[in-house]
Amino acid sequence: MCDFVREWDPGVDVIVPAPPSRDRPVQPLYQIADRVGQLFGCPVDRTSLRKTRITPEMKNVDYDPKRFELLRGAHSIEGDALRRRRVLLLDDLYRSGATLNAVASLLKEEGGVSAVFALALTRTRS
Fold it and tell me: May I ask the CATH class of domain 2-123?
């Protein structure tokens, strides 16, 4: 992944991991985001993008319109630390793109970011 990001070089200012679907003592995506941030000398912001309510894991929701409905209002932006920044939105799984699309729209519309680049580590099987 790091080789890909290095070659892609989107010129981001900050890495924002997608909020996890469920609580775990250790969040693997946060560990990955922290390591990528270290390798690229790029800060990781885990606090500006928040989950406002519990949602099911999207990989377990088969109907695309249902995913979008479940994600509506499920996230918020805290503060203005991301305003005018170029964000690498990092997620561990990609199925339909519903989470990445919902969060990217929120970052642009409410977070005031100047650009969002999304990267998912793996695609789920369907």
Answer: alpha beta
